[in-house]
Amino acid sequence: MTRAASRAVVGAAAALLLAGCGVLPAMPGPVPTDLVPSTAPVPTPTSSGNLSPDGFDAAQRMAVRIRNVGCNSLSTGSGFAIDETTLITNRHVVADSADLQLSTYDGRDVAVTASSTAALADLAVVRTADALPSAPGLADADPNPGDEVTVVGYPQGGALTVTEGQVIGATTDPLNENLGQVLVTNAEVEPGSSGSAVLDAEGRVVGVVYAKNSTGQSFVVPVSTLRQLLADETAFTASTSCATS
């Protein structure tokens, strides 16, 4: 091969190498040192119902989202604190559970230590290891027909929701006839609202949501029944895990 031909081959090989390799990008700049971790925003309700600003603040702080991880199912419900480490919900919200998971309005997880259910009414008591943010007072008497009420809970296991309505009247409990009279309201509730607190204008608990009918009316265990059962040490029985039953 002549010297000229040799130079042509080397030149062609160099051209192929350059064609097969892209141009390297410039080195990145120094890593910034002033980063601030971001947190997911906590959704807030767009309505305070019939509550005053102070009453609304207390209501959202006492409401708890409940996630029931069962052996063959997953469901959600609501509850509310009655003291620092005790909350009220429905019996069917905690039934057939392998694990109960609680979270507060600000996204904090709260560990459960025990739960118990009432035989007479669709009510349950859940004990927590950690302190709950706030607990409302229980009203001294049941509301009257026409009284305005506000329901605070987590329908569909989503964001905290506040709905308002009125007490329509009372009726025999359609699910637990031995219970006697329960309240009927026109406040809208959805699956996941079970166990929600029903509050009067002062933010006091006047009942606990436990069911709805096909026309959109909600059924409420009145506060008089809640008080009666809480005062009876035999009214609630310790729950058992579906994993051991």
Automatic annotation (TrEMBL):
Coiled coil: none annotated. It comes from the Bacteria. SUPFAM superfamilies: Trypsin-like serine proteases (SSF50494). One of its GO terms (biological process) is proteolysis. Residues 1-26 form the signal peptide. Transmembrane segments: none annotated. Gene3D superfamilies: Trypsin-like serine proteases (2.40.10.10). InterPro entries: Peptidase_S1_PA (IPR009003), Peptidase_S1_PA_chymotrypsin (IPR043504), Peptidase_S1C (IPR001940). One of its GO terms (molecular function) is serine-type endopeptidase activity. Pfam families: Trypsin_2. Keywords: Signal. This is Serine protease. It comes from Cellulomonas pakistanensis.
